[in-house]
């Protein structure tokens, strides 16, 4: 009860006026409802019943009731400047009415994966780089500038929006390391300080909502669409990661040429071996595969290295053992962070249990490497489309292992529907190419 009493004291001390309980659906969309401040103590202890049949991928109408139980360790208090009221956003676990964890709750999927490695004495820490675009409206993705990487535009509306967003996030207890303009016009990035994977997934969900809310104040629309505009870089969500035991970073080994321990190398080996089979989660939309193409700084080839930014996994330079890590560059900001982190962890730990050694690192630009050289080095590629990602997910048990069969089946079903809708749609490209020619 100490966690609950501490949360209640914190809410009272902060003068919270509005309580919003939130949870995440199968596709990563944040759902929520407001609760009277007077009801929050009951919510912490008992949870609040809601209709799960109305939430994508949860339950059928004949088994609709579920319970949202707020986690007292996942309370984010937003200042009044965001919505006009001091609001506490509290992340919930979703339960069956008998109190069992709901098997399709994305947060439960990640918690289960983390509990499995905790039994082996490991903790999983991550630090994402979240890229996104600011546009002038929510109907058309129109570029607002022609700036590039690290350009400074002090009085520029999107810069002001990003700076206010970072200020708000820090006031909410969310640790932001840095923020800046990214490579593409109108593109920005916010980098989050390393922390445990569950709290980071909570943080990402709340932060994406705050980014959008602050953008509205500046008459802007913030988009996490992976590839909103043809011809420029899309948005990624690079994930820096390592395994720890207490205060020791287990990915560090001073004797290794890359200063990576055997644990880190086996984790890397598993991630590289199974990355194609988890892409359906890390890159879950039709649009995700418009980003994963040659020429736009997104990874295409399954490889790793230190200085090579065309590689799928990079080993960033670091000055101290605590900073030893892998940077996984495939995911995009449209992913469900709970499921993405669970899948990456499952793939990496499979590499640890199977003692999978990674291939030799590649420090050359793979984008411009002759095809014969890529074949000689056995450099494979990520899926080229959502359809290919679905087919690859079905070829290996790794995704079903990470998600559990009920959620795996629901995601595959959902993504087949999405692909069919895309396949049948008549696009602008087709009109422009064929309408007057045929």
Please give a structural write-up.
This protein has 438 residues and is of the alpha+beta class. The protein folds into two domains: 103 residues, Ubiquitin-like (UB roll); 319 residues, Creatine Kinase, Chain A, domain 2. 37% of the residues lie in helices and 22% in strands. The protein has 14 helices and 16 strands. Strands 6, 7, 8, 9, 10, 11, 12, 13, 14, 15 and 16 form an eleven-stranded mixed β-sheet that branches. It has a five-stranded mixed β-sheet with strand order 2-1-5-4-3.
Q: CATH fold name of the largest domain, please?
A: Creatine Kinase, Chain A, domain 2
Question: For this structure, what is the CATH class of the largest domain?
Answer: Alpha Beta
Low-confidence stretches: none
**Structural class of the helices, strands and pairings?**
alpha+beta
Q: Assign the CATH architecture of the largest domain.
A: 2-Layer Sandwich
Could you give a short account of the major beta sheet? 11 strands, mixed
Let me know the average pLDDT.
Answer: 92
Quaternary state, please? single chain
Strand content: 15-25%
Counting structural domains, the number is 2
- Helical segment count: 14
Number of strands: 16
- Span of the ends, CA to CA: 71 Å
Q: Sum up the overall morphology in one term.
A: globular
Instruction: Spell out the helices and strands N to C.
Output: HEEHEEHEHEHEEEHEEEHHEEEHHEHHHH
In the CATH hierarchy, what is the superfamily of the largest domain? Glutamine synthetase/guanido kinase, catalytic domain
* Helix content, binned percent: 25-40%
Query: What gyration radius follows from the Cα positions, in whole Å?
Result: 22 Å
């Amino acid at each position: 009860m100490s966690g609950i009493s501490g949360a209640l004291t914190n809410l009272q001390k902060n003068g919270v006026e509005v309580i919003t309980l939130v949870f995440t659906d199968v596709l990563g969309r944040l759902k929520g409802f407001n609760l009277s401040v007077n009801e929050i103590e009951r919510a912490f202890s008992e949870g609040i019943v809601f209709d799960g049949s109305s939430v994508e991928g949860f339950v059928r109408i004949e088994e609709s009731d579920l319970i949202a139980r707020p986690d007292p360790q996942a309370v984010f208090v937003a200042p009044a400047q965001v919505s006009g009221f001091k609001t506490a956003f509290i992340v919930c676990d979703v339960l069956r009415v008998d109190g069992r964890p709901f098997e399709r709750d994305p947060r439960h999927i990640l918690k289960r994966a983390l509990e499995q490695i905790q039994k082996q004495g490991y903790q999983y820490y991550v630090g994402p780089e979240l890229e996104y675009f600011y546009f002038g409206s929510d109907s058309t993705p129109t570029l607002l500038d022609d700036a590039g990487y690290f350009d400074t535009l002090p009085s520029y509306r999107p810069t002001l929006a990003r700076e206010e967003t970072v200020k708000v996030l820090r006031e909410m207890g969310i640790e932001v390391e840095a923020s800046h303009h990214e490579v593409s016009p109108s593109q920005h990035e916010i980098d989050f300080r390393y922390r445990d994977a569950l709290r980071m997934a909570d943080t990402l969900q709340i932060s994406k909502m705050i980014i959008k809310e602050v953008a509205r104040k500046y008459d802007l629309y913030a988009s996490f669409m992976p590839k909103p505009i043809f011809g420029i870089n899309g948005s990624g969500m690079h994930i820096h990661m390592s395994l720890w035991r207490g205060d020791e970073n287990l990915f560090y080994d001073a004797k290794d040429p890359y200063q990576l321990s055997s644990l880190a190398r086996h984790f890397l080996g598993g991630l590289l071996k199974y990355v194609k089979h988890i892409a359906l989660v890390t890159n879950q939309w039709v649009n995700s595969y418009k980003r994963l193409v040659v020429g736009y700084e997104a990874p295409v080839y399954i490889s790793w290295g230190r200085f090579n930014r065309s590689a799928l996994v990079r080993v960033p330079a670091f000055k101290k053992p605590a900073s030893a890590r892998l940077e996984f560059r495939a995911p995009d900001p449209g992913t469900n962070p709970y499921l993405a982190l669970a899948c990456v962890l499952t793939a990496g730990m499979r590499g640890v249990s199977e003692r999978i050694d990674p291939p030799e690192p590649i420090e050359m630009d793979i984008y411009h490497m002759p095809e014969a050289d890529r074949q000689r080095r056995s450099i494979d590629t990520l899926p080229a489309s959502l359809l290919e990602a679905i087919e690859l997910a079905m070829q290996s048990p790794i995704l079903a292992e990470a998600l559990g069969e009920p959620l795996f089946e629901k995601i595959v079903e959902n993504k087949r529907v999405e692909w069919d809708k895309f396949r049948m749609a008549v696009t602008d490209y087709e009109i422009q190419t064929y309408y007057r020619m045929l």
